[in-house]
């Protein structure tokens, strides 16, 4: 019950961790978009505004220089040229206002808008004076020169206010960027922690699954295959024999007088003896490739081997019997030997016209019974 609860807890933990990881991933995507927006608002748009402000300064300076040169060299004023420059300034103001409106900021832009409005008003006043200069150049040109100075002052004020605003705007977004960076670092730490938890949970689940698989196929004492696996393997190999006539040998054996051994030496010694027998069978498997060993009962074992004909099956059984006898495990209460021995029944699938797992096992069990009748510590092959 505790094991089942543990598996449920681990599965729930994996699910919760996966949901958290998905949420973290979504948050990181949102942060990425926020960073792009910040990059736009502290780089692209402010850069465009600065460019427009610098261009306005440049255009006003050109306007002022043209007026100064004409005055110094006593040249006639070209009102049309000055009006064209004024028209360019009007378009510049439109661009400046557009870029300011596009700027996403939490700061109050009303002061900057007022400066832009003042600059635009001075441009319109200059344009009006230049248009009237056609009528009386002597009267209006001094007024034009004075208006250009006012325009320059308004331009300087707009540039100063805009530059200050952009500096504060950039600092504000840098703080936001710093906050987001801190949040991302925290998310990364949580993300890594969740990954570690998920990895640990998966490792535990896989270990538990492997443990369950091992418990379902392996005898916990001897580490041999258990009765369940024996039944599955026997059915599979018998089916293969019936389809391809591939030779199959089944060996079943008991430890002789094992109850007396347990009563005399105790169950711990009995378990140790069974473990020693199992270890010898495993070693025999490495020497005789293809021999699979099983513990099918208390002191009952079975072996399956593919590739031996009827005439060689008994020899295999004798090899197993002699190998176990050579362990020299003391058995003082045995009626036939002073050490542990086994009685073996053996059967080959080709002894049947159509073999089944039940008939094979029943025949091997009968042969085992016959070996015991013949005095134990011997092998007997089923005889139809």
Automatic annotation (TrEMBL):
One Gene Ontology term of the molecular function aspect: diguanylate cyclase activity
Annotated Pfam families: GGDEF
Cellular component annotations (GO), alphabetically ordered: plasma membrane
Keywords for this protein: Membrane, Transmembrane, Transmembrane helix
Required cofactor names: Mg(2+)
Cross-referenced SMART domains: GGDEF
Transmembrane segments: 183-206
Catalytic activity entry: 2 GTP = 3',3'-c-di-GMP + 2 diphosphate
EC number(s) reported in the record: 2.7.7.65
PROSITE patterns: GGDEF
GO terms classed as biological process: cell adhesion involved in single-species biofilm formation; negative regulation of bacterial-type flagellum-dependent cell motility
Domain GGDEF span(s) in chain numbering: 246-384
Annotated CDD domains: GGDEF (cd01949)
Entries under InterPro entries matching the protein: Diguanylate_Cyclase (IPR050469), GGDEF_dom (IPR000160), Nucleotide_cyclase (IPR029787), Rev_trsase/Diguanyl_cyclase (IPR043128)
Protein name in UniProt: diguanylate cyclase
Species this protein is from: Marinomonas mediterranea (strain ATCC 700492 / JCM 21426 / NBRC 103028 / MMB-1)
């Amino acid at each position: 019950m505790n094991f089942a609860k543990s598996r449920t807890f681990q599965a729930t933990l994996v699910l919760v961790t996966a949901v958290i990881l998905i949420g973290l991933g979504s948050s990181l995507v949102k942060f990425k978009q926020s960073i792009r927006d910040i990059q736009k608002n502290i780089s692209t748009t402010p850069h465009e505004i600065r460019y427009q402000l610098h261009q306005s300064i440049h255009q006003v300076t050109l306007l002022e220089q043209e007026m100064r040169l004409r005055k110094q060299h006593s040249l006639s004023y070209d009102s049309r040229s000055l009006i064209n420059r004024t028209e360019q300034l009007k378009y510049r103001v439109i661009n400046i206002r557009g870029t300011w409106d596009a700027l996403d900021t939490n700061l109050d832009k009303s002061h900057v808008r007022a400066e832009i409005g003042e600059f635009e008003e001075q441009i319109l006043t200059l344009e009006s004076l230049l248009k009237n200069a056609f009528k009386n150049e002597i009267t209006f040109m001094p007024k034009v020169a004075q208006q250009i100075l006012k325009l320059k002052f308004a331009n300087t004020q707009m540039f100063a206010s805009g530059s200050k605003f952009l500096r504060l705007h950039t600092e504000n977004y840098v703080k936001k960027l710093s906050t987001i960076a801190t949040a991302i670092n925290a998310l990364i730490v949580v993300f890594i922690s969740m990954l570690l938890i998920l990895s640990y949970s998966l490792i535990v689940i896989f270990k538990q699954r492997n443990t369950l698989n091992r418990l379902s196929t392996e005898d916990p004492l001897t580490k041999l295959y258990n009765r369940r696996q024996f039944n599955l393997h026997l059915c599979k190999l018998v089916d293969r024999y019936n389809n391809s006539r591939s030779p199959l040998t089944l060996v079943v054996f008991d430890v002789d007088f094992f109850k007396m051994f347990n009563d005399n030496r105790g169950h711990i010694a009995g378990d140790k003896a069974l473990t020693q027998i199992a270890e010898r069978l495993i070693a025999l498997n490495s020497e005789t490739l293809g021999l699979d060993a099983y513990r099918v009962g208390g002191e009952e074992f079975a072996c399956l081997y593919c590739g031996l004909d009827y005439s060689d099956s008994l020899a295999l059984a004798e090899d197993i019997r002699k190998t176990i006898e050579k362990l020299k495990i003391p058995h003082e209460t045995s009626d036939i030997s002073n050490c542990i021995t086994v009685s073996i029944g053996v059967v080959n699938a080709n002894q049947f016209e159509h073999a089944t797992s039940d008939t094979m096992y029943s025949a091997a069990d009968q042969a085992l019974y016959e070996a015991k009748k013949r005095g134990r510590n011997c092998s007997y092959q089923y005889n139809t």
